[in-house]
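Please check our next protein.
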Amino acid sequence: MPALTDGLAGTLTGAEPALPPGGFDLLLTSLAALANDEGTACFLTLAGGPPSPAFLAAVAAVDDAGALVGLPPFYPDPAPHVSFAWAPGGSAAALADAVAGMEDAAIPAWTLPITRIVCRVGKRGVVVWRARGGGRD
C-alpha cells in the first residue's frame, strides 16, 4: 500500500495547477442508477453534470499512481457521483427503471466541497491530498 499511496500523493501534488489549492466543488444534480463492472452490485447515486477540470485532474492522478503499481485506469470516461444506496446486481434493471420513472421529479442540487482525497484499501484510509486550510481526517 505505501507504493500506491506515496505514488498517489506524488501525482496529486503534480496535478496541483488543476487541483485548486483551496479545494474544488462537486455539483450533483440528478439521480442515476449505476452497476459495478462485475454485475454483482448496483447503486443509487446522486450524479453530476460534465466533470470539472479539477475532478478530471484528480481521476487522472489516481490512474497515474495506480499505473506505478500495475493497476489499470479506473474508468475511461469518469462521471462524478456519490453512491448512497446499493442492491445486489440482479436488481440493476429494476433500479434503472425506477430512476427512469423519476426523471421529472425535482431533485435539489447538492454542492459538495472536495477538500481532501483519501486512498482507501480495505478499512484503512490514507489522506493523499488535502486542500490548503481544509479537510478533516
